[in-house]
Amino acid sequence: MSNLYLVALGSNRRLRPFGDPRHVVRAAMEELAALGTVTARSPIVASDPVGPAQRRFANAAVLLDSAFDPSSLLAGLKRLEREFGRRRSGQRWRDRTLDLDIVLWSGGAYAEPDLQIPHPLFRERDFVLGPAAAIAPRWRDPVSGRTLRQLANRAHRPA
């Protein structure tokens, strides 16, 4: 059985042999093929850091068609992060070579202790919504019922 996932990517640290964060994200998009078929890639966008991170991020999103269930895909994403030099510091939102998050999946909502789909903060993050809406504008958030395009448009409105 095949599942479709929306995966968000981010980097704000250089990594040899890839180079700057944009190139790290581009390389990670290619490496995701080990976990399934990447059917769409968003443009890579720059965003300001969140929390204690110091450097600007390069962010993107992909659609990944995979035979893995959500827990198995998460394990594969964490393994790929480690291969790209990510080390868990115990603090959230620090500078990192690669961050991979499952945002949505074709099965709707999913919850386990280490994984919640939809990603709990994605509706508040322009750096996720913009790239996601670029490749899957009609995908509906199973919680709000809004499409990614609608969520991205709402995020751009002044409060």
Structural class per helix/strand content?
alpha+beta
Radius of gyration: 15 Å
Could you tell me the number of beta strands? 7
What order do the helices and strands follow? EHEEEHEEEHH
InterPro entries: Hppk, Hppk_sf
Protein name: 2-amino-4-hydroxy-6-hydroxymethyldihydropteridine pyrophosphokinase
Enzyme class: transferase
Function: Catalyzes the transfer of pyrophosphate from adenosine triphosphate (ATP) to 6-hydroxymethyl-7,8-dihydropterin, an enzymatic step in folate biosynthesis pathway.
Keyword list:
single chain, 159 residues, alpha+beta, Alpha-Beta Plaits, five-stranded antiparallel β-sheet, two-stranded antiparallel sheet, 7 strands, 28% helix, transferase, Hppk_sf, Hppk
List the helices and strands and how they pair.
Elements: E1 3-11, H1 21-31, E2 37-41, E3 45-47, E4 57-66, H2 70-83, E5 99-105, E6 110-112, E7 115-117, H3 126-135, H4 148-156
Antiparallel strand pairs: 1-4, 1-5, 2-4, 3-4, 6-7
Helix pairs in contact: 3-4
Function: Catalyzes the transfer of pyrophosphate from adenosine triphosphate (ATP) to 6-hydroxymethyl-7,8-dihydropterin, an enzymatic step in folate biosynthesis pathway.
Protein name: 2-amino-4-hydroxy-6-hydroxymethyldihydropteridine pyrophosphokinase
Domain 7,8-dihydro-6-hydroxymethylpterin-pyrophosphokinase: 7-137
Account of the protein in words:
Pfam families: HPPK. Its EC number is 2.7.6.3. Pathway: Cofactor biosynthesis; tetrahydrofolate biosynthesis; 2-amino-4-hydroxy-6-hydroxymethyl-7,8-dihydropteridine diphosphate from 7,8-dihydroneopterin triphosphate: step 4/4. Keywords: ATP-binding, Folate biosynthesis, Kinase, Nucleotide-binding, Transferase. The protein is of the alpha+beta class and 159 residues long. The protein has one domain: 7,8-Dihydro-6-hydroxymethylpterin-pyrophosphokinase HPPK (Alpha-Beta Plaits, 2-Layer Sandwich), CATH 3.30.70.560. The chain contains 4 helices and 7 strands. Strands 1, 2, 3, 4 and 5 form a 5-stranded antiparallel β-sheet that branches. It has a two-stranded antiparallel ribbon with strand order 6-7. Helix 3 (126-135) packs antiparallel against helix 4.
